[in-house]
């Protein structure tokens, strides 16, 4: 554990970018120069204006020395200065035995002395030279001369950004044309189709009209003028209205049979399970066949089925008792997750390292390395 209860970052944490280091350096220099300017103004106001220069020079030199000592102590004990705290950076040790820990006040003294000498007003030549050496570091550690002499490295300790899953766009709502539904002809139901159409019975007026027409056809034609007119034939009585036909008996409808259930959809064949082998720097190696937990003495949660318990030794106690877990997902991907360890878990992919968030699963690929405290695990996907 480092100062203020924060875990010491692993050396494989993300190396600080040059632009963030420059901004942090500029913030520290602006603060220091502001303090120096205030000391110079106080010295002029109290001593130089009264023709007493020596105490004024002593005041300025004392303030410069005090600022330099405060920066040395902050860098050595916690790796933090005001600029680095504002930009999320930290100075840590790059030595094999104390990697990721504060460099100490002694090494910070050497580092701050070299850094102070290079920033003496020389038209920026000293500072530019240190920046050029850091940018041309062939190991990718971005170490200047002051970092190499002190065995230090500047890392980015900001928490990794979490990429949220993109939400799917909602499907367009179906538009129903109510006018079309009103104008659409209703389909005939089976009951309506099977019912016979009964002819309407003739009304009383229609029967009377038929009788009168028949009487007109049977009437005797008129004789010649000298014959006597025949007696008129009385009109036939109106025919009685035909009674309405009784409705035809409805045929017995068979009971509706339930529709047979649709055949089950063909299920896709299960994806082939990938074969993942992990190898630790302690020599332990196995094929992942279930849930694996890693730590100094890993213990499963109540009801948790564990296939592999990987107990590892830790020389600097940077490995938690139950540090992390990994297993093969249903789609064949190997997934690792930190279980809230003290010093965190780091994923190294193609030389680039990033810290994993606690209890946030991350997918691994062939060739990845995972750091659990001071222990390393290599990941290989076998054919």
Concise description?
The protein is α+β, with helices and mostly antiparallel strands. It has helices spanning 18-46, 53-78, 82-87, 105-118, 125-135, 145-150, 178-183, 190-194, 204-218, and strands at residues 89-93, 152-156, 275-280, 285-287, 292-295, 308-311, 324-328, 334-338, 345-349, 352-356, 362-363, 369-372, 375-382.
What does this protein look like?
- Helix 1 packs antiparallel against helix 2 and helix 2 packs across helix 4.
- The two termini are 41 Å apart.
- The protein has nine helices and 13 strands.
- The chain has 383 residues and is an alpha+beta fold.
- The N terminus is likely disordered.
- A six-stranded antiparallel β-sheet has the order 4-3-13-12-9-10, with no helix packed on it.
- The longest helix has 29 residues.
Keywords:
single chain, 5-stranded mixed β-sheet, 383 residues, alpha+beta, 9 helices, disordered N terminus
Oligomer: single chain
Give the helix tally.
9
Query: By helix and strand content, what is the structural category?
Result: alpha+beta
Largest sheet: 6 strands, antiparallel
Report the portion of residues in β strands: 15-25%
Mean pLDDT: 75
- 3D shape: elongated
Supply Rg: 49 Å
Write down how many β-strands occur, each being a DSSP E stretch of 2 or more residues.
Answer: 13
Low-confidence region ranges:
1-12, 162-166, 220-228
Q: How helical, in percent, are the residues?
A: 25-40%
Biggest sheet, spatial arrangement of strands: 4-3-13-12-9-10
Q: How far from one another are the termini?
A: 41 Å
H and E order: HHHEHHHEHHHEEEEEEEEEEE
């Amino acid at each position: 554990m480092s100062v203020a209860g924060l875990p010491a970052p692993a050396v494989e944490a993300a190396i600080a970018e040059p632009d963030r280091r420059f901004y942090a350096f500029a913030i520290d220099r602006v603060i220091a120069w502001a303090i120096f300017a205030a000391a110079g103004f106080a010295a002029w106001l109290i001593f130089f204006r009264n023709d007493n220069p020596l105490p004024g020079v002593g005041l300025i030199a004392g303030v410069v020395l005090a600022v330099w000592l405060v920066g040395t102590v902050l860098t050595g004990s916690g790796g933090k200065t005001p600029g680095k705290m504002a930009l999320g950076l930290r100075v840590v040790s790059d030595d094999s035995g104390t990697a990721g820990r504060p460099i100490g006040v002694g090494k910070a003294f050497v580092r701050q002395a070299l850094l102070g000498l290079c920033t003496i007003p020389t038209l920026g030549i000293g500072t530019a030279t240190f920046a050029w050496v850091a940018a041309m570091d062939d190991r990718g550690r971005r170490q200047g001369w002051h970092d190499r002499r002190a065995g230090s490295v500047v890392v980015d300790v900001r928490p990794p950004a979490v990429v949220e899953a993109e939400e799917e766009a909602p499907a367009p709502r179906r538009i129903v044309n109510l006018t079309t539904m009103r104008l659409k002809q209703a389909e005939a139901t089976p009951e309506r189709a099977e019912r016979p159409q009964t002819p309407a019975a003739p009304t009383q007026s229609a029967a009377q009209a038929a009788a009168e027409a028949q009487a007109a056809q049977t009437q005797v034609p008129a004789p010649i003028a000298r014959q006597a007119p025949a007696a008129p034939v009385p009109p036939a009585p109106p025919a009685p209205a035909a009674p309405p036909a009784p409705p035809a008996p409805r045929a017995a409808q068979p009971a509706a049979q339930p529709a047979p259930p649709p055949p089950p959809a063909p299920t896709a064949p299960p994806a082939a399970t990938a074969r993942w082998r992990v190898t630790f720097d302690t020599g332990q190696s196995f094929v992942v066949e279930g849930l694996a937990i890693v730590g100094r003495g890993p213990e499963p949660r109540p009801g948790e089925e564990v296939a592999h318990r990987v107990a590892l030794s830790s020389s600097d106690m940077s490995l938690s008792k139950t540090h992390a877990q990994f297993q093969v997902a249903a789609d064949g991907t190997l997934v690792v997750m930190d279980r809230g360890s003290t010093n965190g878990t780091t994923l190294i992919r193609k030389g680039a390292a990033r810290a994993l968030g606690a209890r946030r699963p991350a997918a691994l690929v062939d060739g990845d390395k995972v750091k659990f405290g001071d222990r390393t695990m290599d990941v290989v996907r076998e054919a």
